[in-house]
Amino acid sequence: PQLLASKSPTGNALTLAWPGDAGYFDLFQATDVSTDATWLSLTNPAWYSNNQWTLALPATNAQVFYRLRAP
User: Fold this and answer.
1) Of these four, 38, 41, 50, 57, which has the most CB atoms within 10 Å of its CB?
2) Average pLDDT along the chain, 71 residues, taken 10 residues at a time
């Protein structure tokens, strides 16, 4: 499913969201997307509302990539 990212108006938080009708997916992050990148599972709890999974994270200046993966 498509992963949507948006930042808060104050710029201090990043919100990630994906459709809930596609089933449950785990969210992973990495600092690069090379073939040998290490993808780490996010342990922050996502919440389900209005047929959408949402997760809020603190915004940083670090370059981070996110992906969804079915368990």
Assistant:
1) 57
2) 90 91 86 93 91 91 91 79
